[in-house]
Design goal:
seven-stranded mixed sheet, alpha/beta, 15 strands, six-stranded parallel sheet
Length: 350
């Protein structure tokens, strides 16, 4: 089969590799029909994730058809159309039994495209298939389901739920990339009074408006003044960090009101200063987290019911064989306007 293989910092290759095989009785082999690229894949290619060794197949999000299962798999069978989650779960360890699948002690967590071969391939081996795949309801398109493999549960769980977004509150989201826009979409489910999005890029602010932001703050504007005007000087009830750099994290701590919450989603590659000398007296709650994907069934149900439309994220379509072109488009989002790219088994129009 063909797959996108990490060959070291700055190096990737769409090449012929061996087909995956059942290694454990709990495995399934899934034929990939739709896959996407994540910002984390770009971090890997920069060498920012040293746990990923050269030779690893990239990717941790996919939709596909089960073609083979191990003898212990009970909930999916060949022919089923499934969502492959970015987080795998053994289902038995202390953390899995409390829904913290991202911290799985039994060999799961974020492993696809990280510690084992991933989804950017024609076929993928999925460990713990019973608890790491989700049958896709009839009527839900592959491309829509694909957005529930990572970005939507990540923003919903780590941003909106950890940030305790409530009806009538004010939410500020710093960063209008795919994760930030997913936070806008999922925050709207809780009917806050205002959703404010901060980003220096005008095209991303336009996207934020389309996704439901009430106020956008661009380069040269003062986000603190904008939030203060909406809140009578108090600050936001929830600030969601969706970039992953020290400056945006520190900005979130300044934009939130006393007693508010800062929910960090962004993946940080360098230290951020925690100004406890200023923050301790303000009764702030700061949360971080890797997505657990416990919300995936709920999100799938909302998509199936027409309450959530993830297709808005999809800006570019490619055939699976055009993986290199898809990476170039996604990596140069400032020029291409890419939010999420989708690669399908069958050729698709760009």
């Amino acid at each position: 089969m063909k797959a996108m293989v990490y060959r070291g910092p700055g190096e990737r290759s769409w090449e012929e590799v061996a087909d995956p095989a059942i290694a454990e009785d709990t495995d399934a082999i899934v034929e990939v029909t739709a896959v996407t690229i994540c910002g984390t894949d770009l971090h890997i290619l920069k060498g920012d994730v040293p746990a990923v060794q050269p030779g690893r197949i990239l990717g941790h999000e996919a939709v596909g058809t089960v073609v083979r299962t191990g003898g212990a798999v009970r909930t999916v069978r060949p022919g089923d159309r499934v969502l492959v989650s970015c987080v795998s779960a053994c289902g038995r360890c202390r953390y899995c039994r409390t829904g913290m699948f991202g911290q799985c002690l039994g060999g799961g967590g974020w492993i696809l495209g990280h510690r084992i071969d991933g989804t950017q391939a024609e076929y993928v081996r999925v460990p713990f298939a019973d608890t790491s795949t989700y049958t896709i309801p009839d009527g839900v398109a592959d491309e829509s389901a694909l957005m529930l493999a990572d970005i939507l549960p990540t923003s919903y769980e780590v941003g909106v739920l950890n940030g305790d977004v409530r009806p009538g509150g004010t939410v500020v989201i710093v960063g209008a990339g795919p994760i930030g826009l997913a936070a806008v979409m999922s925050a709207r489910l809780f009917t806050p009074s205002h959703i404010v999005v901060v980003d220096p890029a005008a095209p991303r602010l336009e996207a934020a408006k389309r996704f439901g932001a009430d106020v956008v703050v661009g380069a040269g504007d003062d986000p603190a003044a904008a939030v203060a005007e909406l809140t009578g000087g108090l600050g936001a009830d929830t600030a969601i960090e969706a970039v992953g750099i020290p400056e945006t994290f520190e900005l979130c701590t300044r934009l939130v009101r006393p007693g508010g919450r800062v929910a960090n989603i962004g993946v940080h590659g360098r230290p951020a200063v925690l100004h406890l000398e200023d923050l301790w007296i303000r009764n702030l709650t700061i949360t971080t987290g890797l997505v657990d994907t416990y919300s995936t069934p709920t999100l799938l149900a909302m998509v199936a019911a027409g309450r959530l439309d993830p297709s808005a994220f999809l800006t570019h379509h490619f055939a699976l064989a055009d993986m290199d072109a898809a990476y170039e488009t996604f990596a140069n989002a400032k020029d291409t306007g890419a939010l999420k790219v989708v690669l399908s088994k069958e050729p698709a129009s760009a």
